[in-house]
Amino acid sequence: MVIAPPRDAEDTGRRRVTGRPRLVAGLLVGLLFLLLACAASLAFGAESVPPGKVVTALTDYDPTDRDQLVVRHLRLPRTLSGLLVGAALGLAGTVMQGVARNPLADPGMLGINAGAALFVVIGIGWLGLSSFSGYVWCGFVGALLAALLVYGVSAVGREGATPVKLALAGATTTAALGSITGALVLSDTDTFDQYRFWQVGTLSRTADIVGQAAPFILVGAVGALLSGRFLNTLALGEDMARTLGQRVGLVRAMGALSVVLLCGSATALCGPIVFVGLVVPHMVRALTGSDYRWVLPYAAVVAPALLLTADVIGRLVARPSEIQVGIVTALLGSVPFILLVRRWKTAEL
C-alpha cells in the first residue's frame, strides 16, 4: 500500500496536534470505565454491598463487619487479579500480533497456554501440588519452556523466526502438548478433578497468590509498553526495519520474553482465559490506529476493564452461584470479534 505524502509540514503538524488530544481524552475515558468496573467488582456478587461499606472497607476496615470482610478478603484480591490478568493479556496479545505480524495471534499461538496447562497437570499428578500457589510456578515454568521451544524451532534456518514459521511451530507445539496433557488427565481421575477447576478460568484468587504473580506481570508490562516504537518499525516489514537499523531478531526475542512473562503469569494465575488477548488489540486499533505507542497503553486499560465487566456479569446472571469469567469471555467475545473483523477489516495490521 502506497501512502501519499502530506501536502506540507504545517498540515502534518496540525493533524498530530488535533489527534493527540483526542487520543488522550479517549485514554482518560477508558480509565474512567476501568474505575467503574473496579467499583462494580467490589460491590456486586452473590450479595451486593452498599457503596458506603465498600469505601469503609478500603479506608477504615472493621473485621467484625461481614460486608467489609467480604470486600477486603474476597473481592479486593479478585479485583486486583482482574486488573493484573486483564492488562497482561491485553498487552501480550498486542505485542504478539505486532511481533508475529499476525492479526490472529493470541496466547495460544506460542504454545503458552498449552505449556502452562501441561506443567500444572504434572505438578498436580506427579508432585502432589494441591494449592494454587504451586500452580502459579508450574504454569509459569511451562509457559516459559513452551515459548522457548517454539522460538527455537522457528529460528532454525537461514531466514530465522519468520511470522509463518512462528505460527506453524506454535500450532504444532500446542497440538503436541495438548495431546500429552489430555493423556495425563484422562489417566488419573484425581488429577482431572483438580485440573478442571484451574482450566475453566477464574479470577477468584487469594491476595498472597496474586502477590506472587504481580512482579512477573509488572516487569512484562514495562517491557511491552517500551516496545511500541520497535513494533511500529517492524510493522513496515523486516527488510525496511533492517534498513532503518533495527535488529529484527533481538526485537522478536525481547517481545517474546515480555509475552512469556505476561501470558505465562496470567495463565498460571487464573487459567487460560480466551479472547481477551485476541479481541482487545483489534478493538483498540479501531480507536487509535496502528501506532503501537498508543495501542499498547489503550490495551493495558481496556482489557482489564472488559475482563472485570465479564467477571461481574458472571456473578450476577447466576446468583447465588456464578459463571466463571473464562466461560463468560468465551461466550461474549466471539460475536463482537466477528463484527469487528467485518467492519474494520482488522486482518490488516
Automatic annotation (TrEMBL):
UniProt membrane topology term: Multi-pass membrane protein
Keyword hit for Metal-binding: no
Record carries keyword Translocase: no
GO cellular component, one term: plasma membrane
Compartments it resides in: Cell membrane
Single GO molecular function: transmembrane transporter activity
Alphabetized UniProt keyword annotations: Cell membrane, Membrane, Transmembrane, Transmembrane helix, Transport
Origin superkingdom: Bacteria
One Pfam family matching this protein: FecCD
Parts of the chain that traverse the membrane: 23-44, 79-96, 108-128, 134-154, 166-186, 213-232, 253-280, 292-313, 325-344
InterPro entries per UniProt: ABC_BtuC-like, ABC_transptr_permease_BtuC
Biological-process GO terms, alphabetical: siderophore-iron import into cell
Coarse class of the protein's main subcellular location: membrane
Family the entry assigns: Belongs to the binding-protein-dependent transport system permease family. FecCD subfamily.
The protein, known as: Iron chelate uptake ABC transporter family permease subunit
